[in-house]
Design goal:
binds magnesium ion, Creatine Amidinohydrolase, 23% strand, 5-stranded antiparallel β-sheet, alpha+beta
């Protein structure tokens, strides 16, 4: 299937969806303290969707029962919210998406509740920075796997982390998951050339140990086989007609982070 190329007007709707996602993730992040449950976080997200006249792309996705994925510690992605209180020191990963007028946004973050273990914090920092390095590599004229290489290259430079192999980023637009699949590892210089109108969700997922995972009996929750903790960060970004990127799910469009990596963002959105 071909990669969906978006017009400026379509990307403006994706930006609307992206801002709903950004606002929701900020509110959930602020709410993550020991004692809160992931069902509490799911309720926050439901309210913001309703307030913004947005739909959930997670709810009922292949039967998924919530509007967020909430994954704790050795759970890396696709966890189902529940009523178990978050404990001090837990690594909490939240993935969330929204649809505005048929156009999708998708983003995720990990955060430590309460007391921060330094090695856990480095896991999170490494995962987040690798996402930004991947987006920064997603330049006009680059090849798709330049993103993959940049993500892996940064993670490897930071220590012995496991990069999940079965899961990766994706195109995004009128569906949450579109072509192309974006690997979080591998050689540069392969895959389609990046051009204006492409929108991609970049989402590295790593563990403090092995990259091997298994899916729990709930048929959703992806955990590390070795029990080590995982992290997951995600942003959706697009390349605009001016050839510059814009991070649809970042409040500032990625201006600060991409700027620090020497990349100027588009001012078309
Ligand atoms: Mg995604």
């Amino acid at each position: 299937m071909a990669i969906q190329i978006k017009t400026l007007d379509q990307l403006k709707l994706m930006r609307k969806a992206g801002l709903v996602v950004a606002q929701s993730l900020e509110l959930m992040r602020a709410a993550i303290v020991p004692g809160v449950t992931t069902n509490d976080l799911n309720k926050i997200a439901i309210k913001i969707l309703a307030d913004n006249n947005a739909k959930s792309n997670f709810l009922n996705y292949h039967g998924f029962p919530a509007v967020i994925c909430a994954s704790i510690n050795d759970e890396i992605v696709h966890g189902i919210p529940n009523d178990r209180p978050i404990e001090d020191g837990d690594v909490v990963s939240i993935d969330f998406g929204a649809i505005i007028e048929g156009w999708h946004g998708d983003a995720a973050f990990s955060v430590i509740a309460g007391t921060k273990d330094l090695d856990d914090q480095k896991l999170l920092d490494t995962c987040e920075e690798s996402m930004w390095r991947g987006i920064a590599a997603g330049k006009l004229g680059a090849n798709l796997t330049d993103i993959s290489f940049a993500i892996e290259d940064y993670i490897r430079s930071q220590g012995k982390y496991g990069i999940l192999r079965e899961y990766g980023g994706h195109g995004i637009g009128t569906e949450m998951h579109q072509e192309p699949h974006v690997l979080n590892f591998g050689a540069a210089g392969m895959g389609p050339e990046l051009k204006p109108g492409i929108a991609l969700a970049i989402e590295p997922m790593i563990t403090r140990g092995s990259p091997k995972t298994k899916v729990l009996a709930d048929e959703w929750t992806v955990v590390s086989q070795d029990g080590t903790r995982g992290a997951h960060f995600e942003h959706s970004f697009a390349i605009l007609e001016d050839g510059k990127p814009f991070v649809l799910t970042a409040t500032d469009g990625g201006r600060e982070k991409l700027g620090s990596l020497g990349i100027e963002i588009s001012n078309l959105l």
